Every structure is written in structure tokens, then in C-alpha cells.
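Agenda item 2: magnesium ion complex prediction
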Amino acid sequence: MKIRVGFGFDVHPLEEGRELWLGGVKLPAMKGAAGHSDADVLIHALCDAILGAANLGDIGSHFSNTDPRWAGMDSKYFLQEVTRMIQAKGWKIMNADLTVTLETPKVRPHIDAMKQAMAPLMGISMDDVSIKATTNERLGYVGRMEGLNAYAVVLIVQE
Ligand code: MG
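Presented output:
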């Protein structure tokens, strides 16, 4: 049995007039994440971790941010497709551990909904998805609410 780990990171700017999609869920917020797709930073970091574990490039190499097909796209589609890509190579996701850094709004009340949205797309149970959130203690661009970050680690296995 082969076991591999993958890591992903993503950042998006926060802007007024945009929706804030995080972990496949729309959060009530004053500012939303800007980007070509729905700018779901948590799913993008997760996709990069999954692709990285299987050594299949990164999200931008599969879903270019200049391709009009992905404009305003629901990132849950990317997660589903990335999972399909690694499954086609015989890999199976075991678990994912995610962290988002964001000053406001509070993420914790939405964590169960995010797990529920993302776990089935990876073929795993909610118990296999960990989502943690922290502020940036008002430091830097995250602290000034100019942007948000996400980090992801996943474990994959091949029988
Ligand atoms: Mg992104």
C-alpha cells in the first residue's frame, strides 16, 4: 500500500460587493472573496493538497483563472473533479485537515455545514474532515480584512 501526504495554500482578496463562499457554504459577511470563480479559498487550498498528494499539478493547471468556463464557478465542482482525477489513478482520500485565517465573520458556526458540503465530494465522511479557523490577531493583510488565507493537508492511499 502506498501512502502520500499533500499540502495546499491559497489566498484571495476581500472586497465589498462580493459573496463570501467558504468550504462550499455562503457566509453572511460585509466583504466577500474576489476571484475568477466563486473564490472559495478553503476548497482551492484543499484541491491543491489533493492534487499535490497525487503529484498531479495544481488547481490552476487544471482550471485556469483565464478560462471563461470557470468564471463565477462553484468551487465544489473543482473538488469533485480533482477527487475524480486522483481516483482515476487508484488513489483514495483518507482525511483532510484544513485551517482558514480570517478576521471576520466567525467561521465556527458554519463548520458543520462546510464538512457536510465537502466530505461527500471527496468520498469520505464528515468525521474525516477537520476545519479550523483562526483570526490573524489583526496583523497584516488578513488582520486589515484585505484578504483571507487557507491551508490544507490531506492523506491519500493507493491499495
Ligand atoms: Mg484560489
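Discussion summary: The first strand starts at residue 2 and ends at 16.
Owner for follow-up: CH.
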